[in-house]
Amino acid sequence: MSPEAPRCEKNCKIARSPLIYKGHVYHPYIKNIIIGGGLMALGEICAQSLKMYFFVAPNYNSGSNTDLCSVCDQESSKKSWIYLITDTKNYNFNTIIRQSAIGSFQGFYQFIYYSWLDKVFSGVSLTIVAKKVLLDEVLIGPISLAIFFLYNGFCDTCTMAGAFQRCRQSFLPGYLSDLVYWPILQTINFALVPPGYRVLYVIFFTSLWNTYLCFFNARMTN
């Protein structure tokens, strides 16, 4: 009989932040810091683009009820939005850099947490997966959201009172969204996704989640 193929669980610790553990050039912590910051920056860029579409792009509605004018209005709005998002002057790069910083920090501490989680709960049984998802939602999820809102509240107001106020206003709706979004995705991640594909899987869904968080935070500042 041929020897059993080596397991790669130790080299594939992928969870809410993409954890690329393999590699010979960069230390795993450095990789997570870079990827975490990059994903949060991407989320902020997408959030600012959505904000331009919903709140900034001019509305060329002339008030006419004809179908032709309606089509023209829609085309004008689309062209206006495309113009806005392709002009770098319309982006707030200070906010993008700021969100990248918190993303890098989250990538760092979440790497430590998920490395510990895989050591304590190894395997893909239903019980193990359920424990991982439960801990994800009662521990790292609330902590990550609280840090995100406290950080942005402080950056926007430069006061701790403003930071706690932002967290009080945003935490509950953000956490409810987290409970809707992440449990099913993490169940699939922990139980079904092959280790070799977990990086791509989590990068994709983390980018969507970061876009939502940044867009939600931007609305709270208005």
Oligomer: single chain
Order of helices and strands: HHHHHH
Could you say which overall geometry the principal axes of the C-alpha atoms support?
globular
Structural class: mainly alpha
> What's the end-to-end separation, in Å?
66 Å
Query: Major β-sheet, in short?
Result: none
- Rounded to an integer in angstroms, the radius of gyration calculated over CA atoms is 21 Å
Unreliable sequence segments? 11-15, 19-24, 59-72
**Total strand segments:** 0
Family: Belongs to the peroxisomal membrane protein PXMP2/4 family.
Main location: membrane
Keywords: Membrane, Transmembrane, Transmembrane helix
Organism: Schistosoma mattheei
Describe this structure in words.
The protein has six helices and no strands. The protein starts with 27 loop residues before the first helix and ends with a helix. The protein is mostly helical and 222 residues long. The chain has helices at residues 28-56, 67-85, 93-120, 126-157, 160-191, 198-220. The model is unreliable at 11-15, 19-24 and 59-72 (pLDDT under 50). It is found in: Membrane. It is a multi-pass membrane protein. The chain crosses the membrane at residues 175-193, 199-218. Its main location: membrane. It comes from Schistosoma mattheei.
